[in-house]
Amino acid sequence: MVLQTVDIVKNEIPVVEESVVIGKDSNAGLVLVDIINGFCTVGAGNLAPREDNRQISQMIDESEKLAREFCDNKWPVLAFLDSHHPDRLEHPYPPHCITGTDESNLVPALRWLENEPNVMIRRKDCYDGYIGSFKEDGSNVFVDWVKNNNIQVLLVVGICTDICVLDFVCSTLSAKTRGFLAPLEEVVVYSRGCATFDFPASMARNTKDVLAHPQELMHHVGLYMAKGRGAKIAREVSIGAVKNL
Ligand SMILES: [Zn+2]
């Protein structure tokens, strides 16, 4: 059997995933990272998939299911939407998700969230949702959301596993360590609720200044890095009477 690179990496840096049950009294909050057209809808922009992508479709389906359950229970949901001013681009990526375009809006399957009373939408103009939550006056809408909703368990889904999801998780866990996020106790990244984009090395070789980004490999590395900061990685998430967190 010839091992693929991704299999070798998974052998060398395995990520143990857990089955997470969120109880009715878990005080859970759901964070959706950038599940917007510009990253998820075929042909929607410079960083959108060029064709149907299984990992991205699965991420949308799983995120929608969780969002429905959270909204049915009236539990807090926070959606980050990447949204850039046309004069302030995000190096090293090409222009994407410009404010006011449909690229920076939730995908059609999640657009209903805009009308839910338990959902907060935060447009951000950088990779990291934690940093993107700072307002001019120094307050932070994510920190306030955690505190105001008394969130103890944070469940994170979205795109990209190894970029915006990871950056947000890293900052959140550092802030938690510093005591900024009490009563937050656990950060859970749901692996099938996350996805990243595909740009194989064979394509990157012919494109100046663009990093190769093989999807399966980078998704795995993103989960590994998040776990290395102290996040739990969940292979499945359910809502039940007996929580295991
Ligand atoms: Zn961006």
Question: What would the keywords be for this entry?
Answer:
single chain, 245 residues, alpha/beta, Rossmann fold, 7-stranded parallel beta sheet, 32% helix, binds zinc ion, Isochorismatase-like domain-containing protein, Isochorismatase-like_sf, NIC1
Please give the share of residues in helix. 25-40%
Overall geometric form? globular
Return residue spans where pLDDT drops below 50 for at least 5 consecutive residues: none
Q: From the coordinates shown, what is the CATH architecture?
A: 3-Layer(aba) Sandwich
What is the number of strand segments? 7
How many domains, as an integer?
Answer: 1
Return the structural class. alpha/beta
Radius of gyration: 17 Å
Report how far apart the termini are: 39 Å
The fraction of residues in strands falls at 15-25%
Overall residue-averaged pLDDT value: 96
Pfam families: Isochorismatase
Organism: Cinchona calisaya
Protein name: Isochorismatase-like domain-containing protein
Domain Isochorismatase-like: 30-199
3D structure, described in words:
This is Isochorismatase-like domain-containing protein. It is a single chain. The chain is α/β, with parallel strands linked by helices. Helices cover 32% and strands 20% of the residues. It has helices at residues 5-12, 37-40, 54-72, 129-132, 141-148, 161-177, 201-204, 215-228; strands at residues 18-23, 28-33, 77-82, 119-124, 153-159, 186-195, 232-240. Strands 1-7-6-5-2-3-4 form a seven-stranded parallel beta sheet, with helices on both faces. Helix 6 runs parallel beside helix 8. The longest helix has 19 residues, at 54-72. The chain starts with a helix and ends in a 5-residue tail after the last strand. Residues 82, 84, 90, 96-97 line the site of zinc ion.
